Amino acid sequence: MANPNFLIVAFAGQSHINPAFQLAGRLLRTGASVTFTTTTTAHRSMSGIQASDRLTFATYSDGAEEGPKLSNFSLEQHMEDSARRCSEAVRQIIEASRGKGENFTCIFYTAVAPWVGEVARCYDIPSGVLWIQPATLFEIYYYYINGYGDSITNESNDPSSPTQLPGLPPLTGRDVPTFLTPGSPFRFLFTLIEKEIQSLKGDRKARLLVNSFDALESEQLNAIDELKMVAVGPLLPSLEGRGSSGASPGGDLFLGSRDYIEWLDTQPAASVVYISFGSISALSKPQKEEMARGLLSTGRPFLWVIKKALIMDGGDGDGKQEESEDQLSCMEELQKQGMIVPWCSQVEVLSHPSVGCFVTHCGWNSTLESVVCGVPMVAFPLWADQLANAMLIQDVWKVGVRVSGNERGVVEGEELTRCLEMVLGGGERSEGMRGNAKRLKDAAREAGKEGGCADKNLKALLEELVSG
Ligand code: UDX
Predict the structure, then answer these.
(1) Please, which residues have CB within 8 angstroms of residue 381's CB and are 6 or more apart in sequence?
(2) 5-238+450-467 has which CATH code?
C-alpha cells in the first residue's frame, strides 16, 4: 500500500498556521508525506521552514498582488474571497496529484473553512477539521444549534438563569462567545461554524481533531455523543529545533529584533508581567492608558506587545480598523520599568524563567502556550471564544484571575493592579494558582511528548483512515 499522503490547508492567520504546522510535524513523524497549503503571502512570512522529500508547499494567491484593500476592509468579504480562492486552489492541488496517479489519504484543514470539506467530498476524499479553539467552544456551539439556542441567547441578557451544559460550570452572559450575541457584526462567522458542524454530522468520512488534551478538557472532549472529538494537542512549536535566529520553526508571520530576550535574562525569576493580545486585536487608546496606569502602580517589570490591530480594537465588536500607533502619555516612565515591543516570539517568552504572569486576551493558542509553560494568567478577554476561555482559566483550571470592566467596558488601572497582585503577590490564592499551573504544565508535556496521548490518538485516527 502507498505511503499515507496528507493535504493540510491552513487559513492564513497566525493562530491557524501555528497549530496546523505542528500537526504537519506530527504527521511527518509517522512517516507520512504532507502537502502544506496556505496563501503565498503567509507562506513567504513563515520562518525557518524548508520543504523536504516528504514535505511540500503548495501556495495560492490571496490577491495581495492586486494592491492593498485596507481602506474599506470587510472581514465578511475577505472570508468570501478566501473561500473562493482556497476552494479553487484545493481543487487544483487534488487534480495535480491525481494527474501523477496519487491520491490524498485525508485533507486536514483549520476550522472554520467548510468549503475545504465540500471540495474533499466532491472528490470522495476523507477530511479532518482541525478545531483551533478548545473543545469547550465546540461543545457550546454544538449545543447552541441543538436545542440550547434560546437558553444561551437569553442568558446573554439574563444573568440569573445560567445555562448548564455537560462538564461545564453554569454559563453566564460574560462567558458566551460573542459570535452568538444577537446583533453581533460577526454573526456570519457563526453561520460558518454551524455549516461546519452540520457537515461533520452528515459525513461519515469526516473527522474532528481538537488542539487540546484529555487532562485539560476531559469532560468537554466527550460531551457530544454523535461527534467524536480527537484530542491531538497541545500543538505548539517546540523550543528544541529553533534556528540560529531564534525563530520558531512553527511559522512566525512577524519577525523582528530579539533584544527582549536579553532584557528578560537580566530580570529576577518569575518577576516579569508579559502582556499580549494575540495576532489580530489591539486595545483602544483609553484602554492602553489604563493598562499603563495599572502596570506603573504595581512597579513590576513588564514586557508588553503593542502592535497595530488588523481588524478591531478593544472588543467593542464594531469591526473597525485601528491603525494609529499612538504614543502613551506616560511612555517615559513605562520605558524605565519595562519593555514595549511590536511583536515577540511568544512561546520563547513564556518559557523564559523570569516571566511570572501573562496578561492575555485568552486566544486559544496563547492560553494553551501559557498552560504548557506553567505561567499563571490575568485573563483579559476581548471577543469571540476568549470569554469562555477566560472562564476556563479562572473557574475551571484555577490558574488565573479574570478582569472586570467598568460600566463603559474599560478595565481600569486599579483593577489590573488588583488582579496582578492576586497572581504575583504571594499568599494562598497566588500559591494555589502557581501549583495548579505547574500540574497542568506537567500534564501538557506528558500529552504532547513523542509517543504521548496526542501521538497515540493521531496514530489510531490514521489507522482508521488508512484501513478505510
Ligand atoms: C484568533 C482569535 O482571536 C482567538 O480568539 C482564537 O482562539 C484563535 O484565533 P489570536 O487573537 O491571534 O487568534 O490569538 P491566539 O490564538 O492566542 O494566537 C496568537 C498566536 O500568535 C499565538 O500562537 C502566539 O504565540 C503568537 N504571538 C502573538 C506571537 O508569537 N508573538 C506575539 O507577539 C503575539
Answers:
(1) 315, 361, 362, 387, 389, 390, 402
(2) 3.40.50.2000
